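Reading is simple: the token line describes the chain's fold. The lines below illustrate.

. . .
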Amino acid sequence: MTTNTSYIMKKLLALLLLAYFSVSSQNSLEQDIIDIEDKLIEWRHYFHQNPELSNREFKTAEKIAAHLKSLGLEVEKNVAKTGVVGVLKGNNPGKVVAIRADIDALPVTERNDLPFKSEVKTTFLNTETGVMHACGHDTHISILMATAEVFSKHKDKINGTIKFIFQPAEEGPPPGEEGGAKLMIKEGVLDNPKVDAIFGLHINSQTPVGVIKYKTGGIMASVERFVVNVKGKQTHGSQPWSGVDPILISAKIIDGFQTIISREARLTDEAAVITVGKITSGTRFNIIPESAEMIGTVRTLDSDMRLQIMKRMNEMAADIAKAYGGSATIDWQNNTVVTNNDPELTMQILPSIYKVAGEENVQIMKATTGGEDFSYFQEKVPGVYFFLGGMTPGNKESFPHHTPDFKIDDRSMLLGVKAFTQITLDYLNN
């Protein structure tokens, strides 16, 4: 054998060995993802059975932090009150990616007959209620915990740093409190080290397992919380003419609000919604009360439309109340801005999603009037938010989010782990 031939053979052998170890390493990663599914489901069942409301996720945070510490991550607790952040540094230098999961539950009494059904009860806004992961945040926590465990075994593949952000109070902090993504940002969660990009997902009970949905640009709406305070004049229920009825005024105001959507908002430009979700007034059947309180939400996908709707609601509430002899004011709280997927970053990670889900299972969606405070992260750094199918394939029933019947198929979560893993690796390595 000539010297030249020997050199070529050695070179070829080296390339073959490199390819072998590369494939072997990738296979090991994929196997670790598959092997974690039992843990993934176990965690989800625990969190579902032990839900906690916004800014009160104490036990949830403890379990998350204990898990991240067991993996050898740098862990910070009590971020934005009850949040947890884990940092994993790869073996090689590079960019910083953040992956976020929300961890809070809702004041909803579960109606499902599940072995891990929530039986937790509490008082929320002076009302006795159950507590339930009625929006799937239990799946989000579990997916991110599993993703962290997988990555902790493969630091050699990570060119850079991964921040695992477990965020409290996505549903909004209690009145009078700070919380959620806003507070996390305020406390520096996107710094030290500075985050280059952030990714998040949301389970969806009306999308089949195995399907991922995405959209460039605005994918979810801005969310305003409003409180209408109506003042009347108390009197005996038998003599309405001697008082001013705040309940009647409230009904007229609600009716008026809906005409803003049906007659004033340019719905051909973007969708908009006004919803009153809570009315409180009165103590007895035979007393016209002195006041009423209405709490609700405004959802918009356009900033100009948002300002116009809020302006008209302020005017309409005051004018309608005055017309019936009372008065009304509105207090506003901004909960989210538009969840805006960075177009360039979305296109960059799309091939990664194709790899794990199959191109035929990745669908473009229309914007939704749901809201997400993940949007505040996207104001600071490029970010992408997508939806993960959680409905059992072939199911014809609807289990909408934020309802007592909300239900998710456990088999949905593994694809979430695969997606986060592939997206993160590809982003850091390119």
Notes: The first strand starts at residue 74 and ends at 79. Residues 222-336 form a domain with the Alpha-Beta Plaits fold (CATH 3.30.70.360). The chain has a mean pLDDT of 94. The radius of gyration is 25 Å.
